[in-house]
Amino acid sequence: MQLVDDVEPAPATRVAPRFIAVLTLAYVGAFIAFVPLLSLLTPMQAEALAPADKIGLLSLVSLWGAVTASITNLAAGWASDRTRARFGRRRPWILCGLVGVLLAYGLIARASTPAGLLAGVMAFQFAFNLLFAPLHAIFADLVPHDQKGQVAAFIGIAAPMGAASGVLIAAPILSDISTRLIVLGLLVAVCILPLLLVWKETPPAPARPRKKAVAIASSPGKGLNLDFGFVWASRFCFQISASVISAYMLFYLADHARYAEQFPGATVESGLARLIAFSTLLTLLAGFAGGLISDRFGRRKPFILLAAALLASGLLIFAFYPQWPGPLLGYVFYGLGFGLYTTVDTALVAQILPSRRHTARDLGVMNLTNTLPAILAPVLAIAALGPDRSDWPMLMIASAGVALLGGLAVAGVRMAR
């Protein structure tokens, strides 16, 4: 059963190239905001502040950061759906979030204790999700179904570009955490401000009185909600695996792959940045191909199944072949799978949203598949690595199994092929 007000058609007007460009750039800025911070700078800070238990501190920071992100994303999405400002319902929240992200970088740069690092990351997650919840809703608000794959292919470059920005952030010329965070903040602002300045968001219409809930033919609301559940479960599994890679690969390369021993004179963080950069091109190619081809054939699920197989293969290579070129090959498979998955999944999620009037709210629920895995990934890591924090093959095998479950879960979706 659905409210009559909720039964609204999907967007019908195709979006212009100029809008796609500024939206893509804003997504790139959003991913630059958090990927190098959480995958490089936060682990480096954890090691500097707690060298005896760097994994324990990183896990604690990741867990509470994810809790903060989960709550904030839901609240910000709900609030932006109901905002009736003259400048629109999404833009004011994005601007507030951007300012907050820049302030949070300052807190992280000044952190001199584990508690200070925890507070800084929680402040960042709060501000970032004020920004990201309404930004993510714009895609579903405005892009029609037959253009979703194409636009998702463009905004799909955000994740690999965010990862590739780690090469710059890890450059030896940026010698301290403060300088790196200043550069990061500048990049984020330059990428997101064009959307706020160029995009003319139409002020929302006044809220209409809610009508009595009535049943509509074939109870489509029930079917859509079931599809939403399957897609939620699929993304939840994928993101657990991705969270493990994002948070722990620096320590995997240092402690298990012995990167510094294999490449004397090279730092582990620069090695990780180069591996990520190498996989970025494959991620971009896979994302573009998946988005455009899935639009062409009107099919999403086969591509997500293929993405699961590729991603799991990369994780298994990490498990069994830590010696070079094993990590390089693992990142090839992981990059292909991750790029294909993120693009096609973005289009699929926007296609099966239960309510057009509550886009950001529903995407906030979907975003729990990004934040809850960040809570569970540290638990999985600590359990799989064992008391001595060294069983990396077990962690990678478990993560591969979870990724495969994510691919299988999408088979239950009925409203998209």
Q: Work out the helix count.
A: 14
* Record field, number of beta strands: 2
List the helices and strands in order.
Answer: EHHHHHHHEHHHHHHH
- The global form is globular
Low-confidence stretches: 1-9, 207-224
**Which structural class best describes the helix and strand composition?**
mainly alpha
Strand order of the largest sheet: 1-2
Global Rg: 21 Å
**The biggest beta sheet, please?**
2 strands, antiparallel
- Roughly what percent helix? over 70%
**Rounded mean pLDDT score:** 78
Through-space gap between termini? 23 Å
Strand residues, percent: under 5%
Can you describe this structure?
This protein has 417 residues and is mostly helical. Helices cover 76% and strands 1% of the residues. It has helices at residues 17-49, 54-82, 91-110, 114-142, 145-155, 158-169, 177-198, 220-255, 259-262, 268-297, 301-320, 326-351, 359-385, 392-409; strands at 2-3, 213-214. A two-stranded antiparallel ribbon has the order 1-2. Mean pLDDT is 78; it is low at 1-9 and 207-224.
How are the secondary structure elements laid out?
Layout: E1 2-3, H1 17-49, H2 54-82, H3 91-110, H4 114-142, H5 145-155, H6 158-169, H7 177-198, E2 213-214, H8 220-255, H9 259-262, H10 268-297, H11 301-320, H12 326-351, H13 359-385, H14 392-409
Antiparallel strand pairs: 1-2
Helix pairs in contact: 1-2, 1-4, 1-6, 1-7, 1-8, 2-4, 2-13, 3-4, 3-7, 4-13, 5-10, 5-12, 6-10, 8-10, 8-12, 8-13, 8-14, 10-12, 11-12, 11-14, 13-14
